[in-house]
Each structure stands twice: as structure tokens, then as C-alpha cells.
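Inverse folding, one chain.
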């Protein structure tokens, strides 16, 4: 059994009753867990699994693959502010998608985890903006050692950017 603190960056339906929960954790990096029975009415996970929630969690490591078993979740920060605005939620989702694109599973990435926390905190406090989005991309590129090219450097090395980027830019006014 392992434990850590992380932020939920994606939720995917696995079965009628289970979810795949994608976490960004300082100690474990980007990890995927299965929350068995999470979609049931009386699940132990009820109200504890939602996008951008920061939580202490325990999981059992799967030795054969990258999909681990989620055992317990204790919410530290619900980040309700991010759910009040579609733009804020969309850009926060883009932040998580960008990390999923550039990071490998199960490798600790403390600096990226800190960047995500700061980015989500900024969105919650100040709201989404092009400036915040471009800054986040520049920091991801810097941490990866891609120089100052930001999204162009990421595009060149990884061959793509998350599809939601264009939608984010369409919704965020130019100043």
C-alpha cells in the first residue's frame, strides 16, 4: 500500500460502477488508479472524486501495469472556485492535459506538481487568462529543458498539443 497527496486531473468512466482517476502527485508523479464502485450511490468515494480536488490518497500498486487500485481518499482542498466558471475549468483541464502529454507515468515530478498547484491556485484566485495559460506553457517548457519556445518547443518535441488549447484560446479574450 502506498500513499501520497495529489490533484485529480482527469476522471474516465471504466465500467458502469468504476472510474479511472488520473492523479498528479509530488511523490509519485502522474499516476492512474481505478476507483472500484466509485459510481455507485453508496460508494465510499462518494463526493470525494471530482476534477481538481487535492487529496491524500492510498493505492495498491499494480506490478503488471500502470493502472493501480485506489483504496482511500481524504479531500484536502475541493477547489470549488474552479467549477464556477467554464473558462476556468477548461483552462485548468488544459493544464492537466498538458502534463499528461509530456510526463511519463509513475515518475516523481515535484516541480511539475508544484507548477500545477500554483496554476490551479492562480485560476481560482484571478480567473483564466491568455497570460496565465502562456505562462504555464512557458514553465512546462522550461522545466522540460526546452528553452523559451513554450508551446512551439512542446509541439516540436511531442508532435502535438492538447486539442483543448484552441478552444481555450477562443474563449479567452486578447488584451
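Residues assigned per position:
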Amino acid at each position: 500500500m502506498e500513499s501520497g497527496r495529489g490533484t485529480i486531473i482527469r476522471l474516465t468512466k471504466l465500467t458502469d460502477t468504476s472510474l479511472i482517476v488520473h492523479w498528479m502527485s509530488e511523490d509519485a508523479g502522474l499516476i492512474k488508479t481505478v476507483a472500484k464502485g466509485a459510481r455507485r450511490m453508496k460508494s465510499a468515494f462518494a463526493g470525494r472524486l471530482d476534477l481538481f480536488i487535492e487529496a491524500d490518497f492510498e493505492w495498491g500498486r499494480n506490478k503488471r501495469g500502470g493502472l493501480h487500485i485506489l483504496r482511500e481518499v481524504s479531500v484536502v482542498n475541493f477547489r470549488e472556485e474552479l467549477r464556477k466558471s467554464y473558462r476556468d475549468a477548461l483552462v485548468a483541464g488544459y493544464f492537466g492535459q498538458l502534463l499528461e502529454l509530456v510526463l511519463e507515468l509513475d515518475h516523481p515530478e515535484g516541480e511539475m506538481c508544484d507548477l500545477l498547484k500554483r496554476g490551479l491556485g492562480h485560476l481560482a484566485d484571478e480567473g483564466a487568462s491568455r497570460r496565465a495559460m502562456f505562462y504555464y506553457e512557458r514553465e512546462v517548457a522550461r522545466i522540460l529543458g526546452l528553452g523559451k519556445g513554450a508551446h512551439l518547443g512542446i509541439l516540436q518535441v511531442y508532435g502535438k498539443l492538447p486539442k483543448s488549447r484552441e478552444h481555450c484560446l477562443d474563449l479567452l479574450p486578447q488584451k
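Residues 86-102 form the longest helix (17 residues). The CA atoms of residues 24 and 30 lie 5 Å apart.
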